[in-house]
Amino acid sequence: MRTRVTDMFGIELPIFAFSHCRDVVAAVSRAGGMGVLGALYFTPEELEMELKWIDDHVDGKPYGVDVVMPASYAGADLGVDSPEDLVARLQGMIPDGHRAFVENLLAQHGVPPLSGDAEAGRVLLGWTDATARPQVETALKHPIALLANALGPPPKDVVDLAHAKGVKVAALASTPRHAIKQVEVGVDVVVAQGTEAGGHTGEISTMVLIPQVVDAVDVPVLAAGGIGSGRQMAAGIALGAEGVWTGSLWLTVEEADTPELARQKILAATSRDTVRSRSWTGKPARLLKNEWTDAWESAESPGTLPMPLQFMLISGALRRIGNSDAGELATFPAGQIIGAMNQVKSAKDVVFDLVEEYVEAVERLGRLTGD
Prior knowledge:
Helices cover 41% and strands 12% of the residues. By secondary structure, it is α/β, with parallel strands linked by helices. The chain has an eight-stranded parallel barrel, surrounded by six helices. Strands 7-11-10 form a three-stranded antiparallel sheet, with no helix packed on it.
């Protein structure tokens, strides 16, 4: 398969796999696509270890890193450069009523507190310019091929820094207007992500969004949102995309470090079991629908806070839920494609299945238009 993105990165297949798990990233890159490691939850020191491991296990194949540097967020105008000082200032902006709501919700479900405070410094590892820049600096010390930004156009100086290192830059867009802004700051690839996608996503469906973005920009476009089969990959290519960006698809592969409870929830879920909610980060994100997301929409909810305050508010609660038996509160980003994910396979087999079904879909279309 030859498109501008396969030529750009020297890969065999225009399949990009976003994952927070290094094993998935390495496996997809070795299989001919490109794994992209989500850096959000790693400290710079942890990210260094993860990337060193990928360097040693990717067999020289290209891979990427995804960071979160939103264009707008609460506290952006504070003029604070130190991540530690920024966290302290932002903590003071969280209302006591919101803290009480979270504690009451956890108490209702019997979620115990965490012992110790070893995790206290993990409330804000990304989500802002100040906290994401150390992750960027760490990533660019490694032979990555791609630096992606998950929320809007990355800062122009970050794009220039990546280019100076020979690293291409991608950014996710949920509207044509967003895509144009990204190209204006110099991104090399636009990921057009439809509302079906897991995590932060807009309101326009993939089928509608992709051709609009393709027509709006002159750089390669990757189709994202609900891409979980070769048929959907073929549809994205037919709409003008030059590859696909996938995420939820890798949550249940053998290599994924997805907790077993979460894996079973995904395997049992239908495509109606996700919801766009601000309860995770303060910006709309598609999550697995459950009692957590319902609680934030209830009459008792104080309402969500703007990014990054919402995640700072709930980060400890999420860890407490993960260490408890309160599976009814365990929510996480997941796209509508989870309705078709009902078995566990290796990442390599998933890649090969995508390609095989893509070829079958293209050949079927060819027969329809043949003499």
